[in-house]
Design a protein that fits this description.
By secondary structure, the chain is an alpha+beta fold. It contains ten helices and eleven strands. The protein has a seven-stranded mixed β-sheet with strand order 4-5-6-7-9-11-10, sandwiched between helices.
Length: about 290
């Protein structure tokens, strides 16, 4: 498209789109930025796979156009609180049993893998990550699932999953296509944001066992909540801390190492080197990711 003025989150806007937005804003001078974004999503049928409007993404797009001088948005009516701080706050929970557990996987007995998003167990999930995971806890946004694993009444593990990063060269190499070829299906990739085995456990093979069990159910769980399946799992492993042994034992594939830059970094500051591990959910995963809607 020769008249593209802006590309944002997979959507390209030309002059006709900007004219529509200017006219919409002029027709509704009393609407807030959020209310305008809802009207734009409705007019463009811009929805998530579960049918919800993409109004948050639309607001970002309109703000980018505003800052570039293409449209004039109404003044902000209020400034939100610092979400980065708010998303790291965790509620107090009752103390759980942290006495050591050592032995075989079979000795743990039956394990319950419980989905706790928007349930009472979500507070415990957040507390465990906040206290025992080296990255802490941050409340995810967008599509995500939270699994709390229990051995009887005792919590023993947490696995957090969210939407995949939008730009990842190592993944492009593994899929065998540039991101533009499967960007419309990025929502079908789940990213393992947090994995915690409680530090009071010394149980060989537990970590890989749980990865395997979650891999067998995550697509169905995602389908039930967000109305689309998952075709590929991925996770980064910080090689300065871990060897990725549980991913290897669970038959994940190491794709390669990062260059030590975060995906959102705009500076030359280096971060720790990380390995990208992936797990295809089926032999046809490439075909499904590249399939046009």
């Amino acid at each position: 498209m020769s008249d593209v003025l802006l590309s944002y989150r997979g959507r390209s806007l030309g002059g006709a789109d900007v004219d529509f937005l200017r006219e919409l804003i002029a027709r509704h001078p009393g609407l807030s930025r959020r209310q305008l974004s809802v009207k734009v999503c409705q007019a463009w049928n811009w929805v998530q796979p579960n049918g919800q409007l993409r109004d948050m993404v639309c607001r970002g797009l309109m703000l980018a156009l505003h800052r570039a001088g293409h449209i004039e948005l109404p003044a902000k009516r209020y400034s939100p609180h610092n979400n980065a701080i708010a998303h790291r706050r965790v509620a107090e929970v009752a103390a759980c049993d942290t006495s050591p557990i050592a032995g075989s996987l079979a000795a743990l007995g039956p394990l319950e893998i419980r989905l706790v998003r928007r349930t009472q167990g979500e507070k415990l999930f957040a507390h465990l990550l906040s206290r025992y995971h080296y990255l802490g806890y941050s409340r995810p946004v967008g599509e995500h699932l939270k699994y709390l694993v229990l051995a009887g009444p005792r919590p023993i593990a947490c696995l957090g999953w969210s939407s995949a990063p939008r730009q990842l060269n190592l993944r492009d190499q593994f899929v065998g296509a540039p991101k533009e070829a499967y960007r419309h299906n990025l929502h079908c990739i789940a990213y393992n944001t947090r994995y915690l085995i409680a530090p009071w456990l010394a149980v060989p093979h537990l970590a890989s066992h749980l990865l395997g069990r979650v891999a067998r159910r995550i697509s169905a769980d995602w389908q039930e909540l967000y109305h689309h399946p998952i075709h590929l799992l991925e996770s980064f492993v910080d090689i300065e801390r871990f060897r990725g042994a549980c991913y290897r034992a669970a038959n994940w594939i190491c794709v390669g190492r990062s260059e030590g830059r975060g995906t959102k970094s705009k500076t030359e500051d280096k971060t720790s080197i990380k390995e990208l591990w992936v797990y295809p959910l089926g032999q046809e995963f490439r075909h499904k990711l590249l399939r046009r809607p």
